[in-house]
């Protein structure tokens, strides 16, 4: 299992379209849930008159939520297929998906979009597809779910995929190589086994489509970028910053720097899973020790990189954003908190440079007075404190952010250019 490549998968879609049920079904079909656990859930669900809901139950770790029969925590479930070792990352709606997608330990490599065949494209379907694109997901697998509710009717399926295709075109996903699959998460049709109920469909099952995904490339050819999550002081070793390597590689003896704190030195030791290692690469969670760097010299939100190619610190930057929700309008001068990798920094939107047509990416208006929910725009941003961030075209892993205000994710964006300090 360990030698299969790893893939982070986001499962997105409108609330109640069946994301949790589908993930439960996938775990079950790939034998990542013991039969007796499923059996237990099945009995419990039947007792409560919710038979068939047991797959959603698999993901439900909270009794109270189980009682209500709604929210399922599908975050960080894992399963493996013939080709890959998958981690499901936070799904939107259940937790703060956008924030976690950007600042959490996992960025999605690919996504499965779940659309209820009877309900079609809904507001969150749009929002999530927008986000997936903004955050750099290029390939979507579309599961048209609840086919059992329409008697596996081909024309209902076709009608729904036309709606979805329309949306994908708007957001500039290439629909030619998008895989659409008619499924019933509930009944298991076309999840692991081709279904007899859909003899008009000759495409892959969901599991096959997952296996067919292109392997994510390991960004070892990019410079080291290691956002710091925490800084510990450990007796006998000294200061130990910890974090996940987003790009590049690291070895003891490397000369590293922390930005924006602007300190550095020679990396003495690297630890992974409590063992000393002589190499660490993308995706590795490491603790390490750097000669001459004390606990108070660095902090969460710093990025560690090679001394000869240090992380970029922005005086200001230009970014493309998608506004997801805002009670009123956003104008120049707005100063919410930007969450980028492990950093949280108040930043002022200094100017709104262009409003974009979300369907084509074309400029709709130069220097608009305001933007609001649903708009895409190019903005110039000035961090109120030093912030290390990179152009998404150069280091995508360090080039996206979420904008938060009033306890909500207001917008998501990617960095176009950086004006360095
Ligand atoms: P989520 O909010 O997208 O995670 O949706 P859930 O997985 O919680 O499912 C919402 C509701 O739809 C639940 O009552 C499920 O039992 C039901 N559901 C999910 N998938 C199917 C399906 O394939 N067929 C039918 N009939 N119901 C389904």
Automatic annotation (TrEMBL):
Residues binding Mg(2+) are 20
Residues reported in the UniProt entry to bind GTP: 13-20, 90-94, 145-148
This protein's record includes keyword Nucleotide-binding: yes
Output the InterPro entries linked to this UniProt entry.
EFTu-like_2, G_TR_CS, GTP-eEF1A_C, P-loop_NTPase, Small_GTP-bd, T_Tr_GTP-bd_dom, TRAFAC_GTPase_members, Transl_B-barrel_sf
Query: What SUPFAM superfamilies does the record point to?
Result: EF-Tu/eEF-1alpha/eIF2-gamma C-terminal domain, P-loop containing nucleoside triphosphate hydrolases, Translation proteins
- What region holds the Tr-type G domain? 4-220
- Superkingdom: Archaea
> Which positions are tagged coiled coil?
none
Is Nucleotide-binding one of the keywords UniProt gives this record?
A: yes
Q: What residue intervals traverse the membrane?
A: none
Q: What does this protein do?
A: GTP hydrolase that promotes the GTP-dependent binding of aminoacyl-tRNA to the A-site of ribosomes during protein biosynthesis.
The UniProt entry's sequence similarity note says: Belongs to the TRAFAC class translation factor GTPase superfamily. Classic translation factor GTPase family. EF-Tu/EF-1A subfamily.
PANTHER family attached to this UniProt entry: TRANSLATION FACTOR (PTHR23115)
Name the record gives this protein = Elongation factor 1-alpha
């Amino acid at each position: 299992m360990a030698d299969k490549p790893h893939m982070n998968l986001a499962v997105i879609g409108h609330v109640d379209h069946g994301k949790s049920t589908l993930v439960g079904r996938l775990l079950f079909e790939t034998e990542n849930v013991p039969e007796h656990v499923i059996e237990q859930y099945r009995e419990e669900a039947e007792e409560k008159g919710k038979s068939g809901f047991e797959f959603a139950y698999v993901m439900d770790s909270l009794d109270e939520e189980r009682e209500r029969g709604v929210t399922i925590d599908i975050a960080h479930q894992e399963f493996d297929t013939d080709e890959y070792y998958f981690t499901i990352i936070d799904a939107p709606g259940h937790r703060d998906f956008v924030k976690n997608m950007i600042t959490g330990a996992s960025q999605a490599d690919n996504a499965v979009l779940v659309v209820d065949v009877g309900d079609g494209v809904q507001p969150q379907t749009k929002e999530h597809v927008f986000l997936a694109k903004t955050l750099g997901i290029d390939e979507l697998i579309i599961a048209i779910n609840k086919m059992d509710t329409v008697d596996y009717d081909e024309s209902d399926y076709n009608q729904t995929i036309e709606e979805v295709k329309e949306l994908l075109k708007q957001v500039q996903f290439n629909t030619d190589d998008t895989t659409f699959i008619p499924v019933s998460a509930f009944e298991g049709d076309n999840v692991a086994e081709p279904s007899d109920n859909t003899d008009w469909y000759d495409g892959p099952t969901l599991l096959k489509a997952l296996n067919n995904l292109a392997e994510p490339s390991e960004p070892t050819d990019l410079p080291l970028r290691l956002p710091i999550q925490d800084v510990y002081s450990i007796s006998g070793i000294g200061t130990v910053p910890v974090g996940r390597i987003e790009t590049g590689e690291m070895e003891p003896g490397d000369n590293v720097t922390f930005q924006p704190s602007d300190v550095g030195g020679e990396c003495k030791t690297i630890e992974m899973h409590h063992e000393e290692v002589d190499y660490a690469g993308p995706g590795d969670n490491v603790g390490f020790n750097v000669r001459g760097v004390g606990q108070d010299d660095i902090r969460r939100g710093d990025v560690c990189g090679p001394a000869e190619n240090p992380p970029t610190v922005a005086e200001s930057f230009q970014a493309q954003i998608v506004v997801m929700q805002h009670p009123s309008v956003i104008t120049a001068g707005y100063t919410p908190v930007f969450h980028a990798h492990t950093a949280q920094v108040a930043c002022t939107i200094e100017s709104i440079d262009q409003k974009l047509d979300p369907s084509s990416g074309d400029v709709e208006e130069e220097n608009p007075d305001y933007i609001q929910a649903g708009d895409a725009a190019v903005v110039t941003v000035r961090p109120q404190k030093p912030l290390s961030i990179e152009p998404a075209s150069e280091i995508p892993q360090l080039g996206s952010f979420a904008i938060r205000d009033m306890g909500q994710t207001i917008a998501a964006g990617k960095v176009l250019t950086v004006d360095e300090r």
